[in-house]
Give the backbone structure.
Amino acid sequence: MVILPSTVTGSPRHMHEYTQDAMTYVRKYGRPDLFITFTCNTAWEEIGGHLLPGQKTVNRHDLIARDFKQKLSKIINLIRKSHIYGETQCWMYSVEWQKGLPHAHILIWLKQKIQPTEIDNIISAELPDPQIDPLLFDTITKNMIHGPCVSVNKNSPCMIDGRCSKHYPRALVQETQTGQVGYPVYRRRKPGDGGFITKLKMRVGSSLQEIKIDNRWVVPYNPLLSKIFQAHINVESCNSVKSIKYICKYVHKGSDQAVFELQKNRPIIDEVEAFQMGRYISSNEAVWRILGFSIHERYPPVVHLSVHLENGQRIYFNPANLQQQLLSPPKTTILAFFEQYQHDPF
Ligand SMILES: [Zn+2]
């Protein structure tokens, strides 16, 4: 068996370690409070405003990568330093690419858990009032409307076996409901019952159609973040999510891969070959990596200790230092941890 080690950034073993580390937070602090997906928006002024004559955004992956990186740092700072949701216990994000553009999955653990009655203050799944906040209304209708799919557009990419895989259109409900196994059922009021309705020109196949949109199609968002960043930012409360392991895995699934082959017997499992065959690096991901931006950050740190039985650690030596290495073997991380533990009350 040929192994692709976890030292290869973005490899399956590398991403698996992040999943395990995320579960370390879950063991210590319980479920994360917020699950945020932040998607790059090429319509950002910081990208479009810096194009040279004749250029399109697809020509400038350097601008896209730098701008997304800055905005990602900004969003993390708003949460952990400006405490827009209260003080944070821990946080982490992973970046991945789909259809060539970056998006980040962010998990946030707060010191004070979000109470069911507070969800409406943080997350909305409704069209905002166009009279009160026209800017937010514009951002939400541009970025946070799912589809259209189902009967309006049967060929939408979300459609699997004749249904929307993201469960749209959602049911209209008067009050946010928690206590379900998954995400809460967010308030989506009926038109005329506190809800709004609008007509949007949306792409269906190759044509533009005017479609009536009500709250059933709104992807849950946080008004403050949407207004600041003018992008697709899905915010979910995960307090009642049963399978938190699923989310930790999902967040660290890594970028798109595809590989298939038709062959009868294949006795050797070669992870390196499988990874190289399936891996597809978009221009944007390439630029991101060349610029040395990380695909994962978190706080507080999680350190893996090299676990071994007593006197069972690995020792490296050469003929010259054999005696010395045997007499006083270098400390492994776990031995150093035990030593620290003896005189450090922490
Ligand atoms: Zn759909």
Q: What stands out?
A: The radius of gyration is 24 Å.
